[in-house]
Design brief:
InterPro entries: NAD(P)-bd_dom_sf. This is Alcohol dehydrogenase-like C-terminal domain-containing protein. Pfam families: ADH_zinc_N_2 (PF13602). It comes from Streptomyces canus. This protein has 6 helices and 8 strands, in the order αβαβαβαβββαβαβ. By secondary structure, the protein is α/β, with parallel strands linked by helices. The chain has 2 domains: 125 residues, NAD(P)-binding Rossmann-like Domain (Rossmann fold), CATH 3.40.50.720; 30 residues, no CATH class. The protein has a 6-stranded parallel β-sheet, sandwiched between helices. A two-stranded parallel sheet has the order 7-8. α1 crosses α2. The chain starts with a helix and ends with a strand.
Length: 180
């Protein structure tokens, strides 16, 4: 679902090749890879422990995760990013990082001030769960190496309950995957 959410967010931004997108949060890993494949300049945030992982996904810039994200985006792009994907749920704190007339995609329904002509687009991945064309494209991108999948551990299907417990506990880098 993270990859589909990232795809939806990039589609919603409708950025032309060469535009700049800033990305916060976990969905950002897929958003970074898809945005680079689309020819965008990418600014991503990362926690200190994830900096190498995020850098390895190919963004043009990696900023420290935190409250100063918008200001740091402006240091790199004084006019602001063309679009922001706020998967880190920073909400209004990212607004200063987008250019006048830019767009911010949010993932939990937040909409902020429309000052400076900023457009807020709340997305809900459930709206496209049956979008087989998008899912097929994502599968093809994973198979071709455009998208890197983060598999933490695999389980035979009959151990689904154990896989689910591991996922619930959290702290796992990547996803547990069931093998059928």
């Amino acid at each position: 679902m993270n990859a589909l959410t990232a795809r939806m967010a990039l589609d919603a931004l409708e950025l032309p090749t060469g535009a700049t997108v800033a990305v916060t949060g976990a969905v950002g890993g897929y958003a970074v890879q898809l945005a680079k494949a689309a020819g965008l300049t990418v600014i991503a945030d990362a926690a200190d422990k994830d900096r190498d992982l995020v850098s390895g996904l190919g963004p043009d810039h990696v900023l420290p995760r935190g409250d100063q994200f918008a200001e740091r985006v402006r240091e790199l792009r004084p006019a602001g990013a063309d679009g922001i994907i706020d998967a880190g749920l920073m909400n209004a704190a990212v607004a200063a990082g987008v250019r006048d007339g830019g767009t911010i995609v949010t993932l939990q329904g937040f909409t902020g001030s429309t000052d400076r002509g900023v457009r807020w687009l709340p997305l809900f991945v459930g709206d496209r769960l049956r979008d087989t064309a998008a899912l097929t494209e994502l599968r093809d991108q994973a198979e071709s190496g455009i998208l890197t999948l983060r598999v933490a551990v695999t389980f035979p299907a009959e151990q689904a309950a154990e896989a689910h417990r591991l996922f619930e506990v959290g702290g796992v880098r990547g996803r547990p995957v069931l093998l059928f």
